[in-house]
Amino acid sequence: MTSGPEKQAILATDLEHVWHPMTQHSLLAGKPPMLVVEAFGSTVVDADGKSYIDTMAGLWCVTAGYGQTAIADRVYRQMKTLPYYPHTAANVPAAELARELSACLGGDLKRIYFTCSGSEANDAAFKLARQFGRLARPGENRYKIIARHRAYHGTTMGALSATGQSERKWRFEPLVPGFLHAAPAYCYRCAFGKSYPACDLECAAQIETMILHEGPETVAAVIVEPVVGGGGILVPVDEYLPVVREITRRYGVLLIADEVISGFGRTGRMFGFQTYGIEPDIVTMAKGLTSAYLPLGAVATTGAIFSAFLGELEDRVHLVQVNTFGGHPVACAAGLANLELLAEQRLVERAADAGRRFLGALKDLERYPLVGEVRGKGMIFGIELVADKKTKAPATPAIINRVVARALEQGVILGKTTMTTFHLNNVITLSPPLVITSEELDTVLAVLHATLKDL
Ligand SMILES: Cc1ncc(COP(=O)(O)O)c(C=O)c1O
Fold first, then answer.
1. What is the rounded CA–CA span in Å between residue 246 and residue 232?
2. Ligand 1 atom 7: residue of nearest CA
3. Ligand 1 closest atom vs CA 287
4. How far is the CA of 152 from the centre of ligand 1 (A)?
5. How many other C-beta atoms can be found within 10 angstroms of the C-beta atom of residue 209?
6. Omega before 432 cis (within 30°)?
7. Is pTM, for the whole model, over 0.90?
8. Ligand 1 lined by 288 (C-beta under 6 Å)
9. Could you check whether the bond before residue 174 is cis, i.e. omega within 30 degrees of 0?
């Protein structure tokens, strides 16, 4: 335990030297960050010994829960055997993890390129898609990527360009050219003012219109988060992704599934694209790949795409891209142990069953004036807060912050949309470790009721 004077000393050091993400440091002197010292299951413990149920699995990533010693043991063994070697050579855990991932992905998604994060995976996917376009259709110029408003795809310049969240982008613009944005599948605030099913999925149709207006021969790929996570838990209707898949196929446009949040059981199947019954051309992943025990990302693609990069060396068609830490043997060992745990502890099935029950219980929150809509899929949930149910005017950030603070006082860590799209940062988010127990979910529910009923 790090308490008393030791805690104060560490926080003083932190405040003097660390630059925290997404943080206004001028406020930290009055309200220092939580000092987290240990964690197990779905519980994190701060330096004062106070326990919290972490409904956000860290940052949507500690999928198998904290304290899984099988991962730690595997990592320790690998670190002693081979701590690192560049992935231009082969190593045992990376080869085995690629094989296991291919099996989980199914279909023709058999080729895995490793990165260190979700952002890098998405950047690599965009590069793959652009080069593939040039190799497979030499007379065309397929470089545009269609993404969607509200989606988050990462922090590097390419992934940020794909991101559809104005508040994350404007300070750093101009970003990378060639990224366009369509409306998300978001019935509660339909961009077209329509209602499902009479809408005929106009949000999906807009993607087709964009492809046609841009000229299909200029469009390399469409990227989707199966369920938009950080942008507010936007859960599409079941037909949406199949229709988008059909449209992209019709125009020779690749479909990239960003599974950085949706993957590894989060939506009730191993991958979000499986939840919706489609097969993308490229899949990007990170977070739950190692349950965040070590940083690792990956891009999976089909044999068909991979073969376009084959040729003689002098053809210079191979992938000219390297990440120093991509295919890191120790991170891949963590990934292997993590996949074993997901299977042994049946965590994906658990996400589907316990998630369905919890969503049903959460829906009851819609009776409070502040709650506009509760939505979710598998083990990911959003509670959209409004100032007025009729107009759907979003609740202010001050209200959202109060909800999160009150829950924290009661020992529950909730997430929230933070600086995503201007004026639409009004969603409480939950994406707990898949090991979360029924009792813990009951506690979370009770805290939500206590917090939301009189705000
Ligand atoms: C859907 C999605 N894609 C990509 C990323 C970027 O991943 P990373 O932070 O590992 O770069 C994130 C991160 O939250 C994400 O939620």
1. 26
2. 118
3. 10
4. 7
5. 12
6. no
7. yes
8. no
9. yes
Residue 260, ligand 1, Cβ within 6 A: yes
- Please tell me if the CB atom of residue 65 comes closer than 6 angstroms to any atom of ligand 1: no
**Helix, strand or coil, per DSSP, at residue 336:** helix
Pocket test for ligand 1, best of 261, 291, 294 (most atoms within 8 A of CB): 261
Q: What is the pLDDT along the chain (455 residues), one digit of tens a residue?
A: 566 899 999 999 999 999 999 999 999 989 999 999 999 999 999 999 999 999 999 999 999 999 999 999 999 999 999 999 999 999 999 999 999 999 999 999 999 999 999 999 999 999 999 999 999 999 999 999 999 999 999 999 999 999 999 999 999 999 999 999 999 999 999 999 999 999 999 999 999 999 999 999 999 999 999 999 999 999 999 999 999 999 999 999 999 999 999 999 999 999 999 999 999 999 999 999 999 999 999 999 999 999 999 999 999 999 999 999 999 999 999 999 999 999 999 999 999 999 999 999 999 999 999 999 999 999 999 999 999 999 999 999 999 999 999 999 999 999 999 999 988 999 999 999 999 999 999 999 999 999 999 88
Cα(163) to centroid(ligand 1), Å: 10
Ligand 1 centroid to Cα of residue 30, in Å, is 30
Any atom of ligand 1 within 6 Å of the Cβ of 327:
no
Please, are residues 337 and 70 in contact by the beta-carbon 8 Å criterion?
yes
DSSP collapsed to 3 states, 47-58: CCCCEEEECCHH
Q: How far apart are CA 427 and CA 416, in angstroms?
A: 6
| Domain architecture of the chain: domains with CATH | 4-67+347-452 (3.90.1150.10), 69-344 (3.40.640.10)
Residue whose CA lies nearest to ligand 1 atom number 8: 118
End-to-end CA distance of the chain: 35
Distance CA 240, CA 273 (A): 11
Task: List, in order, residues 6 or more apart from 422 with CB less than 8 Å away.
Answer: 166, 167
Atom of ligand 1 nearest to the CA of 59: 14
Residue type, 69: T
Does residue 261's CB lie within 6 angstroms of at least one atom of ligand 1? yes
> How far apart (Å, rounded) are the C-alpha atoms in residues 241 and 212?
19
One-letter amino acid for residue 28 of the chain: L
Rounded CA-CA distance 304/14 in Å is: 49
Relative to the CA of 228, which ligand 1 atom is closest? 1
d(CA 57, CA 60): 5
